[in-house]
Here is the input.
Amino acid sequence: RVQANNLFHPRAFFRLEASGVRTSLAAVLPLIVGQITGYPAIGLFIGLSGLYLSVSDKQGATFSTLLLGLFLNAAAIFAGTLTGNYVWLSVILLFVLAFAAGMMSVFGEVAGQIGFVITLIFAVALGQAGGVDAASERFFAFLAGGAFSLALTLTLWRFDRKTSSAIDETDAQKEIERQA
Here is the structure.
């Protein structure tokens, strides 16, 4: 992560910019492709999935936690789509899920964020109830969007490791010059 004293370092600024580009690509590119190809709803669900996974990339996130988040997000859209057909079941399950997701913060910021996101996805899906076909379509769209976002995130992490070591070397060189 970027420290305040490195904020104006060109590589640190580029790292922040790269994170914004990653989130934008994960969310907007599928929307554009969906509109162009005549499948705007699929593009929307893929884009939302990419956005939701992207915001789960907090300090301490690992490939495993984001992969788990990807599958939980897809499961939440599937379950919410089916459950939305039953009012009282929807209310009860949303309460239970919100409580459990809130408790996930005990396991850290990443788990708490994933819990928040799956609750949000489930709640939104309740308002767009459908059958098994619609739920399955959204499930696979969420898998695709999450996989795209995860690929972008892994690329960003690789870039971040290289940038971090370059910033550390620059800071070390400045410290040596200051002491000399």
Notes: Residues 58 and 110 are 6 Å apart (CA to CA).
